[in-house]
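Entry:
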Amino acid sequence: MSTHHVVAVVGNPKPASRTAVVAELVARELSALTGTASEPDVIELAEHGPALAGWGDPVVAVLKARVLAAPALVVATPTYKATYTGLLKLFLDQFDAGELAGVVTVPVMTGAASAHSLAIDVHLVPVLVEIGASCPVRGPFLAGPEVDDPVPAVEAWAERSRPILRRALAP
């Protein structure tokens, strides 16, 4: 993968999920802000489950290289038990402390109800920061009907977040 692709990591155990749709929408926004016209590089962790269960798997090494080469990153997960999925945890555990070295990252969560919206800040952001990600804006949390029709919610989030993300992504 070229270093010009924004990467979206999707931690939903079901491939081609509604969470993946939201992740791709957010990644497209980041792509526009980085000045690249390329399609985002979407990593569906559901396709790599067994490889994530061990250490040193060559498939995981390739996935990590794609993330580390990205100018910006989206990390998306549905809300499971008021936090992120175990699948995402397995992937994030593959990174050493600080390994993302300030990569601008947007955490994204989806859920059944907005009552879980703090999970993004309480659970997902701390692990991303621990591995070195820079999370300059609060990521979108989409719940209920927003998950089925995510475009308006993502557009509203992008409108609020663009000025901060533009500064964070400036060369």
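The CA atoms of residues 15 and 34 lie 27 Å apart.
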